[in-house]
Amino acid sequence: MSETKNTKSQIRLPIILALAISAGIWIGATFAEPKGNQNDLRAALYKLQEIMTYVNRDYVDSVNSNELIEYGINKMLEHLDPHTSYIPAKDASIAQSQLDGEFDGIGVEFGIIRDTIYVVAPLTGGPSEALGIQSGDQIIKVDGENMAGVGVTNRDVFEKLRGPKGSVVVVDMKRKNQKDLIEYKITRDKIPQYSINASYMVNDEIGYIKVTRFAATTYDEFKESVADLKSKGMEKLVIDLQGNPGGYMGAAINMADELLGGKALIVSQEGKVDQYNQKAFAFKPGLFEEGPVIVLVNEGSASASEILAGAIQDNDRGLIVGRRSFGKGLVQMPIDLSDGAELRLTIARYYTPSGRSIQKPYDADYEAYERDWVDRYEHGEFFSADSIKFNDSLKYETVKGRTVYGGGGIMPDYFVPLDTTMSSAYVSRLFNSDSNREFVLDYVNENKSKFENMTLEQYYTDFTVSDAMLNELVEYGKKNKVEFDAADFNKSKDYLKILVKAHLGRQLYDDSAFYKVVNDINEVYLQAIKLFDEAEKIALATDLHEEEEE
């Protein structure tokens, strides 16, 4: 990973500004900006150069020119829109790896508990698993450098453990009940990241797929999941996009194409530059064009999630269930900068097939934009669909004549209020501390024999979290200074048992186990699997305009 080097030299500043001017001229030429605009840009950049030259030379204190430039870039971009962003070189590779679908590393899921790096689980097929690294192992040293008790951060871990495939890193581990550190020489390799975290059969007919983001591999993962579920008898499909913040637009388009027949419009986008004005249509035979589909969304479903949900809704292909989605209808283009940093520049707005822009309003008040979901909560929108008011000027129609609205997110066809009856402040504090992670790691290590021959289905059906286990978790909480609250504990006891079972399932099996268990208290999911008759009615309905004419 490349680092941005700090310098106080006057030599570097003109080079940076020259590159900026060159880039500005190139952008102007490529996008055929009017000559007046190019002149304005040159004048603005010259002004910046003048100011920075004086600051760097004459300001009373020493300054870091690069830090000032990066601060200025961020403040400048805040005046554009909420999603245009600048990612410094030191963060760019980590940010990109979240979308690439793989990275080079040692292959562990880790957590930082009380300033110590714990191995949550070695990743299947990775080099750490092959060497016998275990859940609960503590990473004490990396290449001889102490990593325990020194204020280590997630970025520190990424920088130390990730590296080119084939390179070697020496990691000293502390294992429970062993006095001496264990030294591992780990050869880094390609580590896949999965964006479909769960795929399973709910019953003999219904398949469930949880999509957590839209990355480079999401479409291929989706096809594999659909094919697998169909081989198990799937006739109806639930696609869970709750909390999915989006990602690659192309992944959402390709997934929609597997569900939509004919030449249905999936999404269109429009920008200032003609090359960004595009429309995407279904064009190939899909894996699941006939069976009923339900898509789950909530206030955390954004961007590419809304493209997929909007395509399904506007084409009357299935039912959207949950709460109003985030409302991000702006398209970003990633631009690699010369020093390894990245600019994610908004270059277009996208529109659902009915013509809706679902971008929620924004202005210069970024805090208000980010606080929108809090305002929705306080306004009562999470609990009652009646609290949501739509502007009639933003009324649109689906292919078959159903009314839908633009102006901020995808409103579901079937609204499910947020259920807060089981949760409590105490449970939130318990799970926001390190208590649950410590308890799960220790419980699994101490009870391995109990689960050796237990299948996931047996675990889901037969295993229960006992009161004794909850009491033990409470003690872990006290060690982490989470004060016990008896009233909250009793109120949330059943809820807490499901959460503990879900996290244990993830540690013992995989993410499918987590979602299979936790969906038992997911009200949106529970309502959705009862609504397939409604989903079929939408897909099979006659065009409403034809009915009116008859």
TrEMBL record:
InterPro entries: ClpP/crotonase-like_dom_sf, PDZ, PDZ_6, PDZ_sf, Peptidase_S41A, Tail-specific_protease
Any GO BP: signal transduction
Keyword Metal-binding recorded: no
Keywords: Hydrolase, Protease, Serine protease
All copies of domain PDZ, residue ranges: 91-176
GO cellular component: outer membrane-bounded periplasmic space
Molecular function in Gene Ontology: endopeptidase activity; serine-type peptidase activity
Coiled coil: none
PANTHER family: CARBOXY-TERMINAL PROCESSING PROTEASE CTPA (PTHR32060:SF30), TAIL-SPECIFIC PROTEASE (PTHR32060)
Entry's family note: Belongs to the peptidase S41A family.
Protein name, as recorded: C-terminal processing peptidase-3. Serine peptidase. MEROPS family S41A
Species of provenance: Algoriphagus locisalis
